[in-house]
Each structure stands twice: as structure tokens, then as C-alpha cells.
TrEMBL record:
Compartments reported by the entry: Cell membrane
Keywords: ATP-binding, Cell cycle, Cell division, Cell membrane, Membrane, Nucleotide-binding, Transport
Lipid bilayer topology: Peripheral membrane protein
Biological classification of the source: Bacteria, Bacillati, Bacillota, Bacilli, Bacillales
Any GO BP annotation: cell division
Source domain of life: Bacteria
Family: Belongs to the ABC transporter superfamily.
Keyword Glycoprotein attributed: no
Gene: ftsE
Organism of provenance: Sulfoacidibacillus thermotolerans
Domain ABC transporter: 2-227
Protein name: Cell division ATP-binding protein FtsE
Gene Ontology CC annotation, any one: plasma membrane
UniProt keyword annotation of Cell division present: yes
Main location: membrane
């Protein structure tokens, strides 16, 4: 589902964020990406949905050759890759249902398809009764569930999550993790960058550790491995 071959990322300011990274993530995997701040985790994640382009190397996600995508192909690729951010990135003037529907409206899905898919993902994330509320009327955990619903509404093959529990308390963090596990159980590949030691150590999934732009550990049932 995801493959990186000798990937390097150097920014214009001279910072080398990734150095010779190679990794394969099969379909249906759940992978944590861990490491110290500034290690290259966010760059690793951004490359997967073409927010950044590699300086060298090859990246394949869901059958797409990321570095060779034309600008016109990027929206097509992103229908297959759902993205969840730490700060939710919801449209504040839209309701819960409208935020989720927006991802389908931009690809000109039919009204019937939009109604059906929005209802399905609202049920999945447990927010059917919040569909007409605005983001500011929700808790942080509820806003993140809306963001996950929006990421899922196109039925992506992959969901990449960059610190999705970073702004949440422990109870809401566990709720978001359990939701992502349910999504994974349905066959969606999950790649989650996180600093949450407790979640990583408790769940014993594959752990890819990045330090100084390189993969330092890749363990099938790993732990967080850092004290800070």
C-alpha cells in the first residue's frame, strides 16, 4: 500500500529532514511513527499525501507514484488518502454534516451519494446527533471525530494522521485511537505520527521510529521507546 525507496527530503533553508528512508507498509497495516521533535515525522507523513515532494527517491501510495504526479492528479490521489490533523482544520462556518459533505462536494458527487456517505460516517464516529452543530459547539474530541469522518467519507485506502490526539485529554485520546482501530479493522491502512507514549505502549502495533531523519527502529509489535 505504501512504499518509500531511498527517500531524501532537503528544504530550501538547507535542513535535511529525511535521509535515505526506505520502508514498506502493506495494505491493512496500523503503524505508529514515533521519534523526538524535529526528527522528521511530519515530513514523513506529508510526503504520503503530497503536501511535500521528495528531493530524491521514490514514493508509492495506493498505486500512485507520488513524485511523478502532475498537479491535476493530486486531487485524484487524495481521494484515496484521508488526512487527519492535530488541529482538526474544520470549516468553522459549516455544520458537522456540511464539513463532512464538503469533501464529496468538491469532487461533484451526487446529492444522494453525499447524503448516504455522510450518514454512514456520522454513525461510524458516533455523532449522528451532532450533525447540525457548528465546530465551536463541540468538544475537542468531538471535533477530531468530525475530522476523521471527513477523512473517511471518500472511502480512502489509507488514512495518515499527524498527532491526532495531540490536543486531547487522555480519555478523548483513547476514544480517537479506538475509532481509528475500528477503521483499520475494516481494511483501511492507518499511519499515525504521535508523541503519545501511553497509546503506543498499550496497543503493541508496528512502530517506525525516526531519529535525525533516518529510521532507527522498525518493530512489528514495538513500544514508544523514548523518555521525553
Amino acid at each position: 500500500m505504501i512504499e518509500m525507496q531511498d527517500v531524501w527530503k532537503e528544504y530550501e533553508n538547507g535542513v535535511t529532514a529525511l535521509s535515505g528512508v526506505s520502508v514498506r507498509i502493506p495494505q491493512g497495516s496500523f503503524v505508529y511513527v514515533v521519534g523526538p521533535s524535529g526528527a522528521g515525522k511530519s515530513t514523513f507523513i506529508k510526503l504520503m499525501y503530497r503536501q511535500e515532494r521528495p528531493t530524491k527517491g521514490h514514493i508509492f501510495v495506493g498505486g500512485f507514484n507520488i513524485e511523478r504526479l502532475r498537479e491535476s492528479q493530486i486531487p485524484i490521489m487524495r481521494r484515496h488518502v484521508g488526512v487527519v490533523f492535530q488541529d482538526y482544520k474544520l470549516l468553522q462556518q459549516l455544520t458537522v454534516a456540511e464539513n463532512i459533505a464538503f469533501a464529496l462536494e468538491v469532487i461533484e458527487a451526487s446529492r444522494r451519494t453525499i447524503q448516504k456517505r455522510v450518514q454512514e460516517v456520522l454513525e461510524l464516529v458516533g455523532l449522528e446527533d451532532k450533525r447540525n452543530m457548528l465546530p465551536r459547539e463541540l468538544s475537542g474530541g468531538e471535533q477530531q471525530r468530525v475530522a476523521i469522518a471527513r477523512a473517511l467519507v471518500n472511502k480512502p485506502k489509507v488514512v495518515v494522521a499527524d498527532e491526532p490526539t495531540g490536543n486531547l485529554d487522555p480519555d478523548n485520546s483513547w476514544a480517537i485511537l479506538k475509532l481509528l482501530e475500528r477503521v483499520n479493522d475494516r481494511g483501511t491502512t492507518i499511519v499515525m505520527a504521535t508523541h503519545n507514549r501511553e497509546l503506543v505502549n498499550a496497543c503493541k502495533k508496528r512502530v517506525i521510529a525516526i531519529e535525525n531523519g533516518r529510521i532507527s527502529r522498525d518493530e512489528e509489535r514495538g513500544d514508544y521507546g523514548y523518555e521525553d
